[in-house]
Amino acid sequence: MTNAFPSVYVFVPQYFAFDLNATKIKEIYANKNSFVEAVGTEKYFMLPPTLKVCDFANNKLSKFYFGMPYLSILNLRNNTLGAYLSTERYTNSSNTELKEVDLSFNFIQDLSFAIFHGHEQAVKIDLSHNKLTDVTFDLSHLVNLERLDLSYNNISGISSQTSMDTLRKLSKTSKLKIDLSNNLLKCSCQNLKFLQWMDANLDLLIHTSKYRCRFENNNVLQLTNVNEVVKQLEKECSSFTTLIICITVGIIMSLLILSAGLLYRFRWRLRYLYYMTRHKYKVFQNIQSSTTYKYDAFISYANEETDFIVSEVIPHLERDENLKLCVHQRDFVPGEDITQNITNGIHQSRFTICIVTQSFLDSYYCMFEFNMARMESIYSRDGQNILFLVFYEQLRPKDLPLVILELVQKQSYIEYPNNEQGNVVFWKKIAESLGSSE
């Protein structure tokens, strides 16, 4: 029995109220009308169990939703269901006997993931003449599918490896054929996996003479030989990938070298700031020098010159000149980290005196003290030079580090004379430099 409806705008499910079940109706043709919506109500939701064909083609439907567990053919061709079907299904039936579904000409850009769930009996699905760009919906339930029409869409390729694997798997249980004709496929490195899949599954595809492919340079060619295109892209993409890797590695190496250079360039400043803030500040603050100092001078020397410090420096400057010195063997805080002791001692002293010898130059901690005092001058004393170099032995200029040589050139040094008359003048000059004498 066939039943037709006049030109109305809303398909009211109460039409089924006239006991259509008793008529054993098999086909309903509501096509070529102006329906904009056909959605079942709670009372009239299920289509009649005897109904096999439901045709709502050539309407203006924006919504369609019924229970249809026994329906065989559903024709929704030429409507405007695209927006609705992107998030909804046309049926809530978990299992349906649908064999053919026509959703062509519906402005479909995307379909809800579960739209074909329960469609184990489906043989043909027509999604042609839409605006699909990819296959993102689930195909795994279509175990008997023989024809999937995706022609005349905007599909550039199938991005999902799961979808490609599912189609290949389905072809082993049915005579599945896929129509991708009149889509503008993309021949690019990003689409290489899909093209490789096409090349390996040409037996699944029909109307391949109408397949077109656009390259990166926007040239469009007939895709008559997929294998040749795949080989060409594999070669180009391999080179492209290698180039990207080389550029990436180059950029990373450049950044690492630049970072290492900056760290090396400012290594003493960073270490100075680190030691000055450690154990003292939770938040970085600019280091401000105090107007008063605990010591008049911090004495930096190698262990080999300990006798000179004990027998000469301390007696002449502390006993005779009444200066207070910071000497590491005597004044460092027990248990405190040596680098912290050094930084604190320099920061709490008005000046730093370095007893320069070859042993001093070879000592890690002596050079550490020298550089910390240099940083103290620059960053805490407004550029005021607080460093005095005392050359206790003769050293050649070529043996001196550049930073020490710069101070020598600025006359910020004095040589120890090591004779009785010269020593008297030497200690007076040191005391004057430290500001103890008028």
TrEMBL record:
One of its GO terms (cellular component) is plasma membrane. Residues 293-434 form the TIR domain. GO terms for biological process: signal transduction. It is found in: Membrane. The chain crosses the membrane at residues 240-264. This is TIR domain-containing protein. It comes from Mytilus edulis. Belongs to the Toll-like receptor family. Keywords: Glycoprotein, Leucine-rich repeat, Membrane, Receptor, Repeat, Signal, Transmembrane, Transmembrane helix. Gene3D superfamilies: Ribonuclease Inhibitor, Toll/interleukin-1 receptor homology (TIR) domain. It is a single-pass membrane protein. Its main location: membrane. GO terms for molecular function: signaling receptor activity. InterPro entries: Leu-rich_rpt, Leu-rich_rpt_typical-subtyp, LRR_dom_sf, TIR_dom, Toll_tir_struct_dom_sf.
